[in-house]
Amino acid sequence: MWGSERGGLGEWGKKRGENGGRSDTNKLQQYGRFWSIFDKVVWWNGIVEAAKNGGRHAPCLRICCYSEEHYDGKKNHDDCDQRRRLQGVPKASELSPAAASDSACSAYEHYIRLPELRKLWSSKDFPDWKNESLLKPALQALEITFRFISTVLSDPRPYTNQREWKRRLETLATSQIQLVAILCEDDLEDGETRGKTPIVDLSSSGGVLARDGSSAEVWKLHGDTTVVSRISEASLLPRLATWHKSEDVAQKILYSIECEMRRCSYTLGLGEPNLSGKPNLDYDLICKPSELHSLKKSPVEHMNLENYENQTLYTTHQILESWIYVSQQLLRRIEERIDRKEFERASSDCWLLERTWKLLADIEDLHLLTDPNDILRLKNQLAIKASSESEAFCFRSRGLTEIAKQSKNLKHKVPYILGVEVDPKGGPRIQEAAMKLYRRKGGFERIHLLQALQAIESALKRFYYSYKQLLVMVMGSLEAKGTRGFVNVDWSDSLSQIFLEPTYFPSLDAAKAFLGDYWSHEQEHNSPERRTRGKQ
C-alpha cells in the first residue's frame, strides 16, 4: 500500500510484468532507486509478487534505517516516532540493552569477586606482548574450568547428575581450548606480535633438568636431540590427570590441547603429549593459577549457606565474566583493524567474536544441571530478585550489556567498509554499494567481513533468546518476566526487545533481497519452458 502512495514499486512492477520479468545488470544497479523512503522508514513491495500479479502489491516488509548508519540530516522524525509508539514499538535508541540498577550490579560484582579478577586480567606483565590482554583472561577462564571440574566431582550430594556434568565440562573446556588456539595462531600471523609471546624453549637446556623443575621430564627425540618437557606446576589440570575421578576427563582435555594447538609454533605446557617437541607457553607466569585459585571462595561463605550450588553459581559466572572481558578486548581490536582497513584480519576477529557469543550461551546453559530445589533455595538465601518486570538477571553484568552494545554498534562501520558516505537525504547508497560488492566480488575480504558482522548479530540475539528460555527452565516462568513475548511482541520485556528488534543491517538485508530477486528472474527468463513458449 505504501508503495503506491509514496511512489514505490507498483508501476515498475507492472512494467516488469508486461516485459515478462526480463532483467539485466543495468536494472540490477537501478533496483535501489525504486525504494520509497518516508521518514527514514523503508517500505519494500515484493518484486516477484508484483510481477506475477500484474502490479498488485504484496504485503510490505518494513525495514528500519535508523539502525545501520548515523543520520546527520535535519529532518524531523517526530511523526515516525509517533507511528512506532502507536504500533507498540520503541525507538531504536531504546532497544539497546541497559544494565540493572547500580546496587544490583555492585552486589553481583562483589559476589563473584569481579574487582579482584579484573586486576588479574588487566595486569601488564609483558609490555612487548600485544595480545596479553586477550590471551591471559582466556587462559584464566580455562584454569577456572579445571577448578570447576574438581568442584563438581567432589560434590557429596548423591542426587547430582555427575555423568552429564562431566560431559558438559569436557565440551566447555574443549570449546575454550579451540578459542585459545585461534588467539595463539593470530600471534603468529601478526607481524607486530610474532616472537613476543612468553615461551619456554625446551631445547635450550641441553637436556638437563633444572633443580626447581620437579614437573619436568627429559625427552630424547631422533638422533642425539634431547628436549626438556616442562609441565605447569600450578595448574590443576596435571593433578586432575592423576585423580581417579577425573583422570578420563583430564586425558580428553590434554588430547584436545594437543590437537587444537597443532597449527601453533608452541603449546600450552599442561601435560599434553607435545609429540612435536614444541616450546611451551610460560603458562604459570601468564595465567598465575595460584593467585587465581585464591579467589575460589565467594564472599558469602561466612553465611554458612550449606548449599553446594553456591560454588556452582559462583564459578560459572567467574568463567562467564572472563570471556566477557576477552570479548571487550576483541571488540576493541576489531574496530582498530577496520579503521586501518585490515578487513581480512578484522573478519577473522569477527568470526571469533561470534564464537565467543556462542560460548557465553554454553556457559549459561550449565545452570540447567543445577538441582531445582537447591538453586531456588540459594536464590532466596542470596535475596536474588528482579527489581522490575523488565530486569533479567543477566543485566546485572555491566560487561555483558557493554559488549552487546559494542557488538550492535559495529553496524556504524558498514558505510566505511563499503567505501560510501551516508546519504543525508536517506537515499539507498549503502544497499546499492552492497549489491555491487556482492555481485562483482571486487573485494572478497569485505564480503567476508560483512558476513561476519551479520553472524555476530545472529549469535547475540540467539544468546538472549536462549537466556530467556533458560530462566524459565531454571527459575520457572514467573521469574522469566514478559513471557508473553513468546507469542506476542511484549516490548516491556528487555530480553524480548533484544531478540525481536529489526535487523541491525537493513541495507545488507535489502541488498540480498534484491540480489535474490534478480537471480530468480534470471532463472525464470532462461528456463527451457519459457524459451519453448517464446518460439511458439
Automatic annotation (TrEMBL):
<dbReference type="GO" id="GO:0046872">
    <property type="term" value="F:metal ion binding"/>
</dbReference>
<feature type="compositionally biased region" description="Basic and acidic residues">
    <location>
        <begin position="12"/>
        <end position="24"/>
    </location>
</feature>
<feature type="domain" description="Hs1pro-1 C-terminal">
    <location>
        <begin position="261"/>
        <end position="521"/>
    </location>
</feature>
<feature type="domain" description="Nematode resistance protein-like HSPRO1 N-terminal">
    <location>
        <begin position="98"/>
        <end position="258"/>
    </location>
</feature>
<dbReference type="GO" id="GO:0006952">
    <property type="term" value="P:defense response"/>
</dbReference>
<dbReference type="InterPro" id="IPR009869">
    <property type="entry name" value="HSPRO1_N"/>
</dbReference>
<feature type="compositionally biased region" description="Gly residues">
    <location>
        <begin position="1"/>
        <end position="11"/>
    </location>
</feature>
<dbReference type="GO" id="GO:0019441">
    <property type="term" value="P:L-tryptophan catabolic process to kynurenine"/>
</dbReference>
<feature type="region of interest" description="Disordered">
    <location>
        <begin position="1"/>
        <end position="24"/>
    </location>
</feature>
<dbReference type="InterPro" id="IPR009743">
    <property type="entry name" value="Hs1pro-1_C"/>
</dbReference>
<protein>
    <recommendedName>
        <fullName>Hs1pro-1 C-terminal domain-containing protein</fullName>
    </recommendedName>
</protein>
<dbReference type="Pfam" id="PF07014">
    <property type="entry name" value="Hs1pro-1_C"/>
</dbReference>
<dbReference type="InterPro" id="IPR038759">
    <property type="entry name" value="HSPRO1/HSPRO2"/>
</dbReference>
<dbReference type="GO" id="GO:0020037">
    <property type="term" value="F:heme binding"/>
</dbReference>
<dbReference type="InterPro" id="IPR037217">
    <property type="entry name" value="Trp/Indoleamine_2_3_dOase-like"/>
</dbReference>
<dbReference type="Pfam" id="PF07231">
    <property type="entry name" value="Hs1pro-1_N"/>
</dbReference>
